[in-house]
Amino acid sequence: MSKISKNTLLDLKALDTPTVCNALEIVDPNRRTRGFNVRPFVCAHPELPSVVGYARTARIRATHKPVTPMDKDGYYTYIAEGGPLPSVVVIQDLDEIPGYGAFWGEVNTNVHYGLGCLGVVSNGCIRDIPDSQENFQMLAGMINPSHAWVHVVDWGTPVTIHGMEVEDGNLIHADMHGAVVIPSKSAKDVIEEAKKIAAKERILITASQQPGFNMKKMREAWQGMTEIH
Q1: How confident is the model at residue 227 (pLDDT cuts 50, 70, 90)?
Q2: Looking at residue 228, what is its pLDDT?
Q3: 210 and 158, same structural domain?
Q4: Are residues 153 and 71 part of one domain?
Q5: Could you tell me the pLDDT band of residue 212, with boundaries at 50, 70 and 90?
Q6: Mean of the per-residue pLDDT values for the chain?
Q7: Which among 140, 118, 141 is positioned nearest to 54, based on CA atoms?
Q8: Looking at residue 158, which CATH number applies to its domain?
Q9: DSSP characters for 47-78?
Q10: What is the distance, to the nearest Å, from the Cα of residue 51 to the centroid of all Cα atoms in its chain?
């Protein structure tokens, strides 16, 4: 686990997740087809800005009553003290029908937020959206009303959420579009590349918004984009 500076976290937070993915494709071409969700999420608070934090991973079940009670103290201690902050919980629902019971609602969003967690990414379900912590982002597979027998099975192990493989301590970037893992060593390069991408896109977008935009002017814009290195 490699902790990055507060300023780098803030610079990443200023980006949206698609831009981060675009930058990663250039910084680390091997990540063009991995490290992000490939199925859609329900986003509880699309109005919130991006969240950036270190992954706390866990796995849950809800279909059947647990044989032994959930170790609440152990789990919440992991959330509070298991690594650098801020964190993002990435939690895999292991049930045959993921989302059978909701772990996330009014109580857990407030508790996790109080322990330094900015949001959750899960293939499971969420509920109590109007009463959830307003600054806590939730990306989930669905919305369902009951918590059934939901309980945490284990934590700190690798998980896979909608095709995104995550390990404890990975740097997670998420917004209304989805989530992506950023290798800590690439964080600063992602920020710098994102600036170049924005500058290039602005040339073409600005040209397209002018009267008389045509193929000739688009080719001129393309040429201008190549001059940004």
Answers
A1: confident
A2: 84
A3: no
A4: yes
A5: very high
A6: 96
A7: 118
A8: 3.50.30.40
A9: TS--EEEEEEEEEEE-SS--SS---HHHHHHH
A10: 7
